[in-house]
Amino acid sequence: MRRRLWWQICTLDVRVAEVSSSEPFIIQPSLHTELPLNINDISLDPHIGELSPQPGRSEMLLSLVRIEISNFARRIVFSDQFCRINNYGMMNEAQKCQAIDEFKERIEKQYLSHCHEAIPLDCLIIMSSRLILAKLKLAVYKTRPNQHPEMPVRANYKKACEKFLEQACELRQYIRGRRWLWLFQYIEWDALAYLLLDLCITLSLPGLSSNEFITTPWKVVDGIYKYWKQQPDVHRDRGWVKIEKLYSKALSVKERAQNATQTFQATPSYCSQEAHDQPEEPSNGTEMQQQCESSLDSASAEEAQSSASTTELPGAGTACEWNASLIETYWEVAGHGNEGF
């Protein structure tokens, strides 16, 4: 019981550091207590001299997974200074990602392989564990304000955000496990804000094709946004106001891109339309060619004018000013100086 209590305190220490954008209070020299044994509560009898961990699944499965992940996160998501104080080995981004993959493989084999998909709590343990590990990788990829404050766009971070939000949706949509969801409440402001920013920038680019439009992560973003919009307690969070601003901008750009695509697809060829409208009278080839060239020149002028107008993105200011405003809003959500999760 002493081990269980101590490691629960350590887990809460990491969680508080995450929420408060600080660092854990407990340092590594204090972590000499061994992990709790993988045994059921009924085995904790004072008359039993020495306990042995039982193989497979026990009542401690969820707690052990959370303890292991929290302890591992100390080496991954906090500052270099924190790692030096705790005598952790310094790792670059690639090494951290590799460490996460190796740790995930061990957790899957040691713990999650004993879960049964027919048991709701076991399913939640599997989904929540993978969600937290995805969040660790998200923290590794995340651009810090002191690195590239003017444009925090990274392809690998975008993919990590999409994966994280998809797993969060999957967890919340698991109906049989809803009574335990309060244990796994994570507010995904960073990932949601980043994808909204990416959508605003991507959908405002000229020449966006319908295929590119379909592949945008709007569906998962829209689902996450609507979920949190139905949670009144979250609306008191100052980050929610910024999320609504980014969502409103992204929705505006999305609708504008849709309208532009539909207009382009619905516009018939000028030459073929005029040829269809003309009565069937003899006409020399030179005159027809001049009419086509004149129509195409007119169409090109209209297209150029339309393209020029779309460089002015929704809202006040030029495209550059508008993007700068959105990026500033993103950093307000992501948090300046946040070196934690």
Automatic annotation (TrEMBL):
Stored CDD domains: fungal_TF_MHR
Annotated stretches, region: Disordered: 268-316
Biased composition (Low complexity): 293-313
Keyword list, A-Z: Nucleus
This protein's record includes keyword Nucleus: yes
UniProt GO cellular component terms: nucleus
Domain of life: Eukaryota
Location(s) in or outside the cell: Nucleus
Polar residues bias locations: 281-292
Matches recorded under PANTHER family: UNCHARACTERIZED TRANSCRIPTIONAL REGULATORY PROTEIN, ZN(II)2CYS6 TRANSCRIPTION FACTOR (EUROFUNG)
Listed name of the protein: Transcription factor domain-containing protein
Organism: Hypocrea atroviridis (strain ATCC 20476 / IMI 206040) (Trichoderma atroviride)
Source species taxonomy: Eukaryota, Fungi, Dikarya, Ascomycota, Pezizomycotina
